[in-house]
Amino acid sequence: MITKTEYEAELESLSPLKMDKWLDEAQPKSEAGYKKQAELKVYLNEKKEICIPANSIKASMRLASSEIGKKMEAKKNRQTVSSAVFFEKDMYPIGKKKPDMIVEDVVTILGLGAK
User: Fold this and answer.
1) Do residues 77 and 69 touch, judged by C-beta distance below 8 A?
2) Residue 9 counted as domain residue
3) Whole-model pTM?
4) Measured between alpha carbons, how far is 100 from 98 in angstroms, rounded to an integer?
């Protein structure tokens, strides 16, 4: 017999939320271009509200569960979250229409350029 248990939760962040949705287009060359690209990388629902994808929440839960217990117990926790946690919606709004801030990431490849 399969039983379904529903939980309601409120997410709280300890650090700013970084969104980096994949965009299949050329990289910008100007500051204005980077800003526009950053705004396009935000996940939005049909009401144009900023959202967190359910699969990102589940991935965070899976990672956090693997920090609990020793090696085998952590693996069981990860597997439990993977197989037993489901979401009703694909996207969960965070109550904002515009990002708080946009920051530019500096990425360097090990062995090339300044380290």
Assistant:
1) yes
2) no
3) 0.69
4) 7
**Domain carrying residue 95:** 44-115
Q: What is the per-residue burial (b if ≥16 Cβ within 10 Å, else e) of 28-63? A: eeeeeeeeeebeeebbbeeeeebbbbbeeeeeebbe
DSSP letters, 79-99, are: HHHHHH---S-SEEE-S-SS-
CB within 8 A of 27, min separation 6: which ones? 37
Closest CA to 95 of 22, 21, 26, 45: 45
Flag whether 73 is in a domain.
yes
Q: How far is CA 21 from CA 6, 37, 40, 42, 69, in A?
A: 29, 10, 8, 6, 32
Assess contact for 65 and 78: CB atoms under 8 A.
Answer: yes
Of 104, 87, 85, nearest in space to 28 by CA: 104
pLDDT, one tens digit per residue, over 39-61 is 888 899 999 999 999 999 999 88
Q: Which residue in the block uniquely carries the two structure tokens 């271009």?
A: 33
Provide the number of structural domains found in the chain: 1
